[in-house]
Design brief:
Blueprint lengths: L4 H23 L6 H8 L3 H7 L3 H25 L8 H12 L2 H13 L3 H26 L10 H21 L3 H18 L6
Helix pairs in contact: 1-2, 1-4, 1-6, 4-5, 4-6, 4-7, 5-8, 5-9, 6-7, 7-8, 8-9
């Protein structure tokens, strides 16, 4: 059956976003060009600009694509666990797996570039805002599936975990230290036992 125009358009858009994400991981913002993204996607610049009129719009869409993929992977992986395995240490470890993804580090590279680029900052701000809100919402939802969690402090636990892991990702870009990951996860688990004393080990 022949694909509809909307289906073809969506296929092209997805190919461009996948190419943009891989380009961002491989080259960083400094080497990110629309020409390279088009080359990786096997499409012309004209086709690219019909979907993404500027480089900044493409960058914002690329990190949104990365965020959506990582959140979906995180949620599915947790829901695939048997109930007995849905513990706080496992939830934290799986969250770190998301944070440790090279594509997320590449997205943080875009954050840094936006510090001195007002146009880029304006392009990514709504994307980042939505991602933070959706990740926190997902974290609270999944935390609620850990037996015995006190909902009154769930928001604080989720925010602390997300923000501290993001900070560590940035630190590791400058100073690789695998032991720091273990220390952070241990610290977060210890704090979870204080904040959520019935969350289990």
């Amino acid at each position: 059956m022949a694909r509809t125009q909307a289906e073809r358009r969506e296929t092209t858009r997805t190919a461009l976003l996948e190419a943009a994400a891989s380009c961002l991981v491989d080259t960083g913002v400094a080497g990110f060009t629309t020409a390279e993204v088009g080359r990786r996607a096997g499409l012309s610049n004209g086709a690219l600009f019909r979907h993404f009129p500027t480089r900044n719009v493409l960058l914002a869409a690329a990190i949104e694509h990365v965020f959506d993929r990582l959140r979906a992977h995180y949620e599915q992986a947790f829901r695939d666990l048997p109930t007995v395995s849905r513990t706080m240490p496992r939830l934290l470890a799986m969250l770190w797996e998301v944070m440790d993804d090279p594509a997320l580090a590449a997205a943080f590279d875009v954050y840094t570039s936006a510090r001195t680029d007002a146009w880029l900052q304006a392009a990514i701000e709504p994307v980042v805002t939505e991602h933070v809100e959706r990740l926190a919402e997902l974290g609270r939802e999944l935390l609620g599936e850990v037996p015995g969690v006190d909902e009154r402090v769930a928001d604080s636990a989720v925010s602390l975990s997300i923000l501290s892991m993001q900070g560590l990702v940035v630190n590791l870009m400058a100073k690789p230290d695998p032991a720091a990951v273990t220390r952070l996860l241990d610290d977060l688990h210890h704090l979870s036992l204080l904040l959520l004393p019935t969350s289990g080990g």
